[in-house]
Structure formats: C-alpha cells, structure tokens
Amino acid sequence: MFSVTADPEPPRLFVAGEALIDLVAEPDGRFRPIPGGSPANVAVGLSRLGGTASLLARLGTGAFGSTIRAHLEADGVDLAHAVTTSDPATLAVVTLDEHGRAAYDFYAEGTADWGWTADELPDPLPDGTLALVTGSIAAAREPGASALLELLRRERRRGEVSLVVDPNLRPSLLGPRDAVRARWDDLIGLADVVKVSDEDLEWLVPGAPPAEVAADWAGRGPSLVVVTYGADGALGVTSAGTSVRVRTPPVDVVDTVGAGDAFTAGLVDGLRLAGLLGRPGEDRLAGTGADGLRAVLDRAALVAAITCARAGADPPTAAQVSAAAH
C-alpha cells in the first residue's frame, strides 16, 4: 500500500467548466440561491481537502455572478485564470424527492458558462500544474466545448499534466445522443483518469454492464476508470487490469446534491497525495496495485458520503475526512 504524506505547498490543480447558481426548492415553495455547478463544486472540494485549486470559469458581473465569485474566493479557490463576462449566470432549479435525490431544470441560453474562446484559456497551463479536471455541461455544450477540447488536446500532446474527465451528463442541455457519445469518445481517449456514474453510463451506452464498459475505456487511453454506483459504492479499473470494488460508508442522507462532485474531488486529491498525478506519476497510476487503488477509492467514497449527510454541495475538509475515518 502507498503511503500518504501532506505537501507543505501543494502543487496546483486546475478545474475547467461551469460555475452557476442552484435554485434549491424549500419546503415553503420558495427557492434559495446557492452557488454550484459540477466543476466549481470540484474546485471547492479540492481546496477544502488541501489542494491548490484554480478554476477556469466564465463568471458574470451581475448579482448572481458576484455571489458565485464570493463563494469561490471564500473557499480559497484561485480565480486568477477565470474570465469576467457581462453574460448572466446559468441557473439550475433543483428539486429533491423523498429520498433526497436531486433533479435539475436549467435556464442556460445565452449564459456565461458556454462562451469560451480559445484565447480565454491558458496555453499552456502554468508550470507545476499536476492535473486538469473537466467534464459536465461545459465540456459538451457549444460553442465553448470545442475550445475546452482543444485545451485537453494541447495538454495531452505536452504530456506534463494528468487529465481527469467526468461526463456528469445533463441530457436536457445536450444535443443528440450520438453526437454526445462521439464527443465523450474523444474526451475519454485523451484522459488519464475517467470518473463516471452508472447513471451516465446507462445514458451513453444503454444496457451495457458498467464493469465491461470500464474495462473497455481503460483500454482506450486512460490509466484509470472509476464507475460510481451511488449508495452501492464504486469500481476502479486500471489499464493494467487491476479491478477494485469499494462500498459507500453508511450515513443518514440529507440529500445527494454535489455527492458525485465530492467523490471526484476526493479521487483527485487521493491520487495527488499518493504521487500518482502529473508526468512523473503516469506509469505508477497505470500500475497501481489493488491495495493502493482501494485506499484512494475508499477515501473518495468517504468524502462523498460526508457530503450526502449535509444539505447541498458542502464537501468536507481534510481534517473532517480524517476524523470520520477513525
């Protein structure tokens, strides 16, 4: 099993994608605005876990945009590479069922998150960057998705940064299934790490067993593919053939908002602590044994479980994860 040591000055982790407002339905019928968006949630999670997280996002200048910016800055997310735009913030209306599972409706036409142009994205990423994490709507919705795809292609050719992708699909905002599948085939081929939910797999490849899809994707380029099953845990498969299944720690679920994003943050942070990100860690990531992979996945599952025990996308700090693990 690998050993984990804390970094006095953690290397930088970049996250690219949307930072929006979740309008969460309250019992009295009112809606409460909460900053969210999958990539923004991942950046917050990484920062709370002790990483130096930089967010590539397009942030509006209106009231909601200012709310998003203040939230990210309060959690220590670096916004030096974020773009300021006069476009309005994207809104996601969130409703919860009796089990705390979230459903989303979006107001996303003409909003800030999708307007990336090539000159708004760094070329290359700064020296010392360990990983670039992206996915969700921004990686699949034009016109900005093509600019993000080119960023990943450039960094893949450069070979200095680990690329992590998570589909986190929102079908109502995407195009035809075949076009979305083709885009994700491109992204999977570029990635070093893929994290995907069983729900997303059912939409992308209906009826296919998740373990078989994970093994197939691990043969296309990624060193590691992780499938999450919500309350039923997660599966990790490496390109070298190691396969590990872990359980989700039992918790009293308040809601599932941000749980998948918390898992992604926990996964990336665990790989960082294990020295498995960045160019020096590339071969080690593919060759990670079952014990090392299980330790990373167990921690990521714990980060997600703690988030489920709280209202909204509220990932834990490293100290809170350590306390819960003992």
Automatic annotation (TrEMBL):
Single biological process term from Gene Ontology: fructose metabolic process
- InterPro entries registered for this protein in UniProt: Carboh/pur_kinase_PfkB_CS, PfkB_Carbo_kinase, PfkB_dom, Ribo/fructo_kinase, Ribokinase-like
Keywords attached to this Swiss-Prot or TrEMBL record, sorted alphabetically, are: ATP-binding, Kinase, Nucleotide-binding, Transferase
Q: Which residues form the Carbohydrate kinase PfkB domain?
A: 13-315
Report whether Nucleotide-binding shows up as a keyword of the record: yes
Q: Where are the coiled-coil regions?
A: none
The protein's GO terms of the molecular function aspect are:
ATP binding; fructokinase activity
One matching Pfam family is PfkB
* Family membership: Belongs to the carbohydrate kinase PfkB family.
- PANTHER family per the UniProt record, alphabetical: HEXOKINASE FAMILY MEMBER, PSEUDOURIDINE KINASE-RELATED
Please state what the protein is called.
Fructokinase
| Organism encoding this protein | Haloactinopolyspora alba
